[in-house]
Write a structure and sequence with these properties.
Elements: H1 11-23, H2 26-33, H3 37-51, E1 56-58, E2 63-65, H4 67-90, E3 96-101, H5 103-110, H6 114-120, E4 125-130, E5 144-149, E6 157-171, H7 173-179, H8 185-188, E7 193-195, H9 201-208, E8 219-221, H10 225-233, E9 238-242, H11 243-251, E10 256-257, E11 263-274, H12 281-296
Parallel strand pairs: 3-4, 3-5, 7-8, 7-9
Antiparallel strand pairs: 1-2, 5-11, 6-9, 6-10, 6-11
Helix pairs in contact: 1-2, 1-3, 1-4, 2-3
Organism: Pseudomonas promysalinigenes
Family: Belongs to the LysR transcriptional regulatory family.
Keywords: DNA-binding, Transcription, Transcription regulation
């Protein structure tokens, strides 16, 4: 009996090829695969040599697919998807879903709601990966991510808008009672402006007090939105934050919305997850629950 698939290239090389074809960048492909850029380049060169076909065009920045490479990539992506699905069906695992979110999204929006999820879905083991680093679905074992920005977020991904970004200014009621509400640009200068990594203050103050120069108020900067919100809760100044992150604190009287003005941005929070032939039921349940939480609040 002849050996099966004698012309089949290395499966590892095909996996590397699929990632490079999707990222069109050796460095990004190496990061996703958790290997060196040199190892990725070596696998691609070896695959092209074994096939005797040029799959990529080397460009000044990244690479581009040749016509043959583009056709091959579509077929290989489909084939790897079938192998992945067959393996999942062969080795069923407990209903476990890993969600990648930023630390601020986790602490200020998601974690307070997790008790409701556990009650509604006791059969799903929900795991949070809270990091500012861009998580990779395959290498980090992430099933779905909440990402902030504007699509596209990469090839081979499903994208669904979760909620818009509406920025408001908040402070503790005690601080406002002590100093008075800043009705004018000059009064606002008397407050400490609490910044996070997004730096919304220039756009917000320009919309609030048009025609004035950039604010020169005292500032304290944090690398996490949640830390800036905590500082505002402690009466240390005024911060700008997503309304979704501070709505519960405003409702409970722990924070006060300083101005009626909201800064609406083009960026939003999106659900992002890999395209698959068949979506696991647990993942569908998590997505539906996240959408329901946004609709209720």
């Amino acid at each position: 009996m002849p050996a099966g698939f004698p012309g089949l290239p290395s499966l590892n090389a095909l996996r590397v090829f699929e990632v490079v074809a999707r990222q069109l960048n050796f460095r990004l492909a190496a990061e996703e695969l958790g290997v060196t850029q040199a190892a990725v380049a070596q696998q691609v060169r070896g695959l092209e040599a074994s096939l005797q076909v040029r799959l990529f065009e080397r460009l000044p920045r990244g690479v581009g697919l040749t016509d043959a490479g583009r056709s091959y990539a579509a077929s290989i992506r489909s084939a790897l998807g079938m192998i992945d699905e067959a393996t999942r069906l062969l080795r069923p695992t407990p209903s476990q879903v890993t969600v990648s979110v930023t630390p601020s999204f986790a602490s200020k929006w998601l974690i307070p709601r997790l008790g409701h999820f556990a009650e509604a879905h006791p059969d799903i083991d929900l795991r949070l990966l809270a990091t500012d680093r861009l998580s990779h679905f395959h290498t980090d074992g992430v099933d779905i991510a909440v990402r902030y920005g504007q699509p596209p977020f990469g090839g081979g991904l499903n994208i669904e808008r979760l909620m818009e970004q509406s920025i408001v200014a908040v402070a503790s009621p005690g601080l406002l009672a002590e100093r008075g509400k800043p009705e004018t640009f000059a009064a606002l200068q008397g407050y400490v402006a609490l910044h996070d990594g997004h730096d919304f203050w220039p756009a917000f103050s320009a919309a609030l007090f048009p025609g004035h120069p950039p604010a020169t108020a005292k500032t304290v900067r944090f690398n996490q939105t949640s830390l800036a919100i905590d500082a505002a809760l402690g009466g240390q100044g005024i911060t700008l934050a997503s309304l979704a992150f501070v709505k519960a604190d405003i409702a409970a009287g722990r924070l006060v919305q300083v101005f009626a003005q909201c800064l609406r941005l083009d960026q939003a929070f999106y659900l992002v997850w890999p395209r698959r032939m068949h979506e696991p039921q647990a993942l569908s349940a998590v997505r539906a629950w996240l959408r329901a939480q946004v609709a209720e609040n």
